[in-house]
Amino acid sequence: MAIRHKAVLLALFAFAVLPLSGCGPASAETQGQMVRLAKLEIDPAQLDAYRAALKEEIEASVSLEPGVLTLYAVSEKDRPTHFTILEIYADRAAYEHHIKTPHFLKYKQGTEKMVKSLELVDSVPLVPSMKIK
Amino acid sequence: MAIRHKAVLLALFAFAVLPLSGCGPASAETQGQMVRLAKLEIDPAQLDAYRAALKEEIEASVSLEPGVLTLYAVSEKDRPTHFTILEIYADRAAYEHHIKTPHFLKYKQGTEKMVKSLELVDSVPLVPSMKIK
Fold first, then answer.
1. Cβ–Cβ of A132/B58 closer than 8 Å?
2. Crossing angle, helix A102-111 and helix A47-64, to 10 degrees?
3. Which is deepest, A13, A69, A79, B48, by most CB within 10 Å?
């Protein structure tokens, strides 16, 4: 009986649990990702300074932090003071590490008075393995 | 005099025009890119069907069209009927080609009655060479 139970448990594991790790929309690599849209409106009088500070912060983050998978920032063509940033972190720990880095803190403190509004929208990717060619 | 004029013009060209093609934030590779945010709200009763149709269209576009550099779609965690898609095309011609493909037309016609609103926001990337690790 004990052996039969073990076999049943093994079969259950193989059919019910294992497929979750290999199939489905998210692979193990992308499963713990943290994805967010940051939406900002910037003081027009400080737009050039803000762009420079954000660019510096993004380039430092992506090059120095393996867990920052992208910070893809765009401004609207018709409203250049409106920014959206697609933020992808490998996992929550990578994000927690990111917001304690010197380059992030420099950006955050340096741009505090340039940012008129900030909205952070936690999001779910439709195709988590998606890249940029 | 004619020769001196020509020399002056050549010097002007070399110092004023040539640097534009090699330097600056955007490389030749990224300069003609078309970047857009698509913002959609979906009928909640048809959300599953919409997600499937969008996923199929995105996967076909990115795998079949070299000029579709990414279609990174997210839905909001707190409002799963609200989607944002970061669309990057190699250039306008790649976009024009994209909207005539059978997979795009199938998606567009098949989801027409699922989409409650659609806003297309032409955008400018801050770091055009940005990728997703």
1. no
2. 170
3. A69
Contact B76, B32 (CB under 8 A): no
How do residues B71-126 score in pLDDT, each as one tens digit? 999 999 999 999 999 999 999 999 999 999 999 999 999 999 999 999 999 999 99
Cβ pair A76:B123 closer than 8 A: yes
Residue in A91, A86, A88 with CA at minimum distance from that of residue A32: A91
- The alpha carbons of chain B give a radius of gyration, in whole angstroms, of 21
Tell which residue, B100, B60, B103, B54, has the closest CA to residue B80: B54
Residues ≥6 apart with Cβ < 8 Å to B101:
B60, B61, B64, B65
CA distance A104 to B5: 52
Q: What is the dihedral sign for C-alpha B59, B56, B44, A31?
A: negative
Strand partners, B88: B35, B70
Q: What is the pTM of this model?
A: 0.81
CB contact under 8 A, A130 and B84: no
Q: pLDDT tens across B31-85, in order?
A: 899 999 999 999 999 999 999 999 999 999 999 999 999 999 999 999 999 999 9
Q: Which residues of B touch A123 (CB under 8 A)?
A: 74-77, 84
**Chain B residues near residue A54 by CB distance under 8 angstroms:** 126
Strand partners, A118: A40
Looking at residue A84, what is its pLDDT? Answer: 99
DSSP string, A18-58: HHHHHSSSS-HHHHT-EEEEEEEEE-GGGHHHHHHHHHHHH
Backbone angles phi, psi at B98, to 5 degrees: -55, -45
